[in-house]
Amino acid sequence: MIMFGLRALIFVLSAALGLIVADLVLGGFVIEWSNWWGFVLCVVIFAILQSVLAPWIARMAKRYAPALLGGIGIVSTLVALLIVVLLPIGSLRITDAIAWVLAPVIVWVVTALATLLLPMIFIKKQVRATGSQM
C-alpha cells in the first residue's frame, strides 16, 4: 500500500513538474498562479486523466491505427491537456497554436523524465534511512 501511495505521489509530482516547465518555456501556456488551489486541482485531474487515457488510447490505436502506437504518450497528454483546459477551473490556459503543438511534447518529456528520476531520489533516501537504522 505504501508503494502504491509513493507511485501515485511521484506521478502527481511529475505531472506538476511537466505543467510548470511548460508554463516557464511556452508563452501561450499560462498557469494562473493567483488561483493556486485551481492549479493543484488541474494537476490532480491531469494525472488521473493521463493514467486512464494512456491505456485506453493504446487499445484504440492498436485496434484502429497501429501506426500511432509509438506516440500514445504524447496523444494521451494532448487529450488530458485539452480536457483540463476546457474544465471551468480556470487555472490553466493554452492561448496559441504553437503552445498547443509544443505543450504536449514538453509535458510528456518532463513527465517521463520525472517518473524515471524521482523514484531514484526517493529510493536512495529510503535506502539511506534504512541503512542508518541498522
UniProtKB/TrEMBL annotation:
Keywords: Membrane, Transmembrane, Transmembrane helix. The chain crosses the membrane at residues 37-56, 68-91, 97-123. This is Phage holin family protein. It comes from Microbacterium protaetiae.
